[in-house]
Protein: Vacuolar iron transporter
Organism: Nyssa sinensis
Amino acid sequence: MAQNRRSESEKSLLNQHTEKHFTAGDIVRDIIICVSDGLTIPFALAAGLSVANASSSIIITAGIAEVVAGAISMGLGGYLVAKSEADHCMKELKREEEEIISTKPGNKRSAT
């Protein structure tokens, strides 16, 4: 009887308990990587062009073109990474569901 009460009270506590996790880790990581790439390469390009005695308009135009190209590249890269990760998670979920179904009591198949 006491065991039943304890398990019921534990169930009640578990239902009430919610953990708060930091969920923005991937976003913070992406921002740090993009900012470091987005600032380093244009400055290096501008420095290289200024050493080559290019005019100011060429340096500014090349810098803007590089920033736009870098933004497109990073955006596409981030999209492809997120899409492939989502596909992988869906395939894993499907595989786990099939494994659970195949290992139910009474089934003779075993999980592989």
Summary: The chain has a mean pLDDT of 79.
